[in-house]
């Protein structure tokens, strides 16, 4: 499976745009745009794009693994949040420059909680969905208005936008769904949690706890969204090939798990703790 650890811009084609102008604007290339969006026969002519199409633009950046959305005419913060299966509060929280959630403008850049998956030979949407643990409908909504995508046909080299698992108050930015993890795995993200304490553990598909519950402290506590990062060691060897990373908060009232975010991951079951 082919998770892409690169930066991408999500851009809606405007009247007068060309592949060359879009590539030049974002520091990409026309060939990269064609491949990532299936801009070739039988979808379309290699130089033909239409206003309203949404393109994934691979672009060099000093901030790897980011997906940047360029606000288009008619967008609202809430419609963008819906597209990427995120709560509006989360979208506002990770874009700290948003002063007024009711005031965003065309051309504005927003960081959205998503990553890119490159289709390989033999892939289907069902297979990708099952491997990443992300529902098909979530993938289709994130990729609406894109060329080269249908429910029963996708092309090798095509790059799918995949929303990151998140809750209202937590998003995990590392590892990505589908990543293979090992002891000492770095876990990163943003959270708005009580006293800035972010809880995490690893569980395999046999419900065996591989990494016991641990906590790390985000850089800011509620009501802000703080960045968190911690290494998560294995306390026992995995007994299954797959499992889940759990990242969550605990209720100040009764200690129950709240804001649980589950990321589907894979293990090398021959590795030791």
TrEMBL record:
Domain of life assignment: Bacteria
SMART domains per the UniProt record, alphabetical: LysM
Q: Name one Pfam family in it.
A: Gmad2
**Where do the LysM domain residues begin and end?**
9-57, 67-112, 115-162
Query: What is the name of this protein?
Result: LysM repeat protein
Q: Which species is this record about? A: Paenibacillus eucommiae
């Amino acid at each position: 499976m082919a998770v892409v650890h690169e930066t991408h811009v999500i851009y809606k084609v405007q009247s007068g745009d060309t592949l060359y102008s879009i590539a030049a604007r974002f520091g990409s290339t026309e060939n990269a745009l064609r491949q990532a969006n299936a801009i070739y026969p039988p979808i379309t002519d290699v130089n033909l794009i239409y206003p309203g199409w949404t393109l994934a633009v691979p672009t060099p950046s000093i901030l790897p693994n980011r997906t940047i959305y360029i606000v288009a005419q008619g967008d609202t913060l809430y419609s963008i949040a819906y597209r990427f299966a995120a709560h509006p509060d989360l979208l506002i929280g990770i874009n700290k420059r948003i002063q007024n959630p009711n005031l965003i403008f065309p051309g504005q850049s927003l960081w959205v909680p998503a990553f890119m998956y490159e289709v390989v030979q033999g892939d289907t949407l069902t297979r990708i969905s099952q491997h990443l643990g992300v529902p098909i409908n979530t993938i289709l909504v994130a990729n609406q208005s894109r060329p080269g995508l249908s429910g029963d046909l996708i092309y090798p080299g095509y790059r799918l936008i995949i929303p990151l698992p998140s809750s209202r108050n937590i998003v995990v930015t590392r590892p990505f769904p589908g990543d293979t993890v090992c002891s000492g795995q770095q876990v990163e993200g943003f959270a708005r949690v009580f006293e800035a304490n972010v809880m995490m553990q690893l569980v395999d598909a046999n419900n065996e706890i591989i990494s016991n519950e641990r906590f790390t402290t985000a850089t800011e506590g509620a009501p802000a969204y703080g960045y968190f990062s911690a290494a998560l060691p294995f306390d026992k060897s995995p007994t299954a090939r797959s499992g889940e990373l759990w990242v969550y908060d605990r209720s100040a009232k009764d200690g129950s798990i709240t804001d649980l975010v589950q990321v589907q991951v894979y293990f090398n079951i021959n590795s030791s703790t």
